[in-house]
Amino acid sequence: MILKKKNLKIATILPYKENYTLDKASAASLWVSEFFKKSKYKKNNTIYGHTKNKNYLTINYKNINLKNLNSKIKSTTNEYANKLIKEIASNNFDIIEIHNRPQLLNKLSNKIKSRFIFYFHNDPISMKGSKTIKERLKILNSVEKIIFVSEWVRERFFLEIDHKLRAKTEVVYPSVNKQKKVKKKKNIIFVGRLNHSKGYHIFKDAILKILDEFPRWQAYSIGDEDRRVIYINHQNHKELGFIPHKKTLSLLNQSEVAVVPSKWEEPFGRTSLEASSRGCATVISNRGGLIETTDHAIVLKKLNSIELYKEIKKLIKNTKIRRKYQKFGRKNVKHLINSNTKLIDEIRESCVPFYNLNFLKKKLKIINLYNQGQKLNHRLFNISVGKKLTNGFIRNGHDVLEISDRDFLKNNKTFSLIPNKNNFQSFLIESFKNYNPDILFFGHTRNIDLNTLDVFKKINRNLILSQWNEDPIMPSLNYSKQNIENINLYSAFVDHNFITTDPRKFRKYFKCKNLNFFFIPVDQNIESFDVFNMKPKNDLFYAMSHGVNRAVLKEGIEDDRIIFLDKLVKKIPSIKYDFYGFSNKQPIWGNDFNNALINSKMGLNLSRGKPTKYYSSNRIASIMGNGLLTFVDEKVQMNDFFNKNEIIFYSNTSDLAEKIIFYAKKDRLRKKIAENGKKKYFKLFNEVNISKYLIDISLGNKNNLFN
């Protein structure tokens, strides 16, 4: 199902000193202007840059004036960035596209809350801000997409970087329109800087021999060079200097042969594409991205003047071969502006999934991927956040397909008894194709390959990816470090991330921008007991898991909770406590857990690690949701949601011991507070509200549940 998107508002940022003008346009300017003209978002696309020249390529261009352009004191990049920030910060652009200046991306992305797309027109290894692996990874984490002008440029970016991260990137080539056949003149044309890197010396030596041998032919050089050392002196050769792009194209239309003998690694090589598409028999070197420009060029086997001379001579003498290259190049243009503009617009749309606010009137298709615990004999049924979310999605009127990653891998092992992740990726992709969801939620997994997420996005560019995680985020815990790594693994690809800890304190540990808090939900079918109406035998309940997979006491475990419980037990010897995973008492699960829980009046919500704002495991839902009087450390700040008539806050072990003794004797008061707590919990954080909140945020809609 496709829901209606709003019209995207886009800011395009050119490098400063980029000539966005009719007479002096360079490659990046031509790219931006030509794709702009064909885009369906051109009415809402503003292009920013700085140039001293007038006569701009398009009417939507805004020039940023810089006072200190040549200043040795102030950084021009900083001045340009600061003025851009002032100019665009209040315009609420959905997307900001930055071309070819990584340093500019770093400055703007830290100041402006928009989604960024970055375009590489040159070799990333040679550019400030992207030379190192660390810098390039930073770019990946700062943007929604990176677009490269060739596969060669992309390969350079990913030198010594895991290619799995390529899923966040695209190659979109400079493009042209198909051209009608025109009458040709005996012209041989060179376009580019008149220097060694462009192979102008190779062209010189070859063309002098050609023009002497074939006096009826004419050669043209288009371009300039500040530090000129190479000159061609021949009566049949003309240097035209730097001429407007339109005139260059017109000359290519009229010419029989075009030559691009670059010695340097061309990021792309626009001249080759333009020449071939305009019916030139084109000769190119095998450098950088040049061979990606056209499938109908002669590629020099050896990059020297002798080889170039031979190939040009062959084209001059054999009209049939020359016409073949001209015809195929003109009719079979490799990179067409219409299709590639459509691709760019689709990439933009995939970065900003804005939907209409009335989406709940429509039925969404949702995949919810999490560990269902089949391999653990379903003993996690009563503490499964994933199951509660599924129930909430369904009760909100949506359709849900559940997938259990760890159960699949457990049930589909190879003969070596090793889980087959490749089979799981195939299963995911085929399931995705068949179901075609609007949203994919996944929790607590690292079993989805990044390439698989890329396939999903290509199948459905409107797909929303959101991950949720209920485990602790405190970096002091080894377990938490792994947990943070798991979340960061997908940070470059998911649209939204949800954690059960206040994210404000921990943003620096995450690579993702869209980090949101969510509360552990309760579910009417799971937290179904009212202990405040029962007559439990025990006073206080607490259960430690020691890990869901092992589920037995670990020897020599270091856990602050054990130290805390030891102190507590010593302070309250008269209290009937029922603790599990503690003092040689094995952890319990499933129905055994429920039976033990409802046989106690009160429950302790003590989570691993230092008390952290809002963090709790599913323990709080089990205790409060089933109507036990609940004790929570005041440093967790649950008082933002519950008051002292709904939950009991304690400051330290001694304070907790006193309050346990007090409420153990005050049955009526205990029952009333426990009942109030359960009612409040179910009112605010039931499975319907929490699942609606996750959907709202994922779709870009407002939800004030936690504001």
Strand-residue fraction?
A: 15-25%
Mean pLDDT: 90
Note the main sheet.
Answer: 7 strands, parallel
* Distance between the amino and carboxyl termini: 30 Å
CATH class of the largest domain: Alpha Beta
Low-confidence blocks of residues: 1-5, 355-361
Helix content: 25-40%
Q: Give me the number of helical elements.
A: 22
Counting DSSP E segments of at least 2 residues, the number of strands comes to: 24
What's the architecture of the largest domain, going by CATH?
3-Layer(aba) Sandwich
Physical arrangement of strands within the biggest beta sheet: 3-2-1-4-5-6-7
Shape: elongated
Report what the structure shows.
Helices cover 35% and strands 16% of the residues. The protein is α/β, with parallel strands linked by helices and 707 residues long. The chain folds into 4 domains: 10-171, Rossmann fold (3-Layer(aba) Sandwich); 185-334, Rossmann fold (3-Layer(aba) Sandwich), CATH 3.40.50.2000; 359-517, Glycogen Phosphorylase B (Rossmann fold), CATH 3.40.50; 531-684, Glycogen Phosphorylase B (Rossmann fold, 3-Layer(aba) Sandwich), CATH 3.40.50.2000. The chain has a 7-stranded parallel beta sheet with strand order 3-2-1-4-5-6-7, with helices on both faces. The chain has a 6-stranded parallel beta sheet with strand order 10-9-8-11-12-13, with helices on both faces. Helix 1 crosses helix 11, helix 2 (76-88) crosses helix 3 and helix 12 (385-395) crosses helix 22. The chain is elongated.
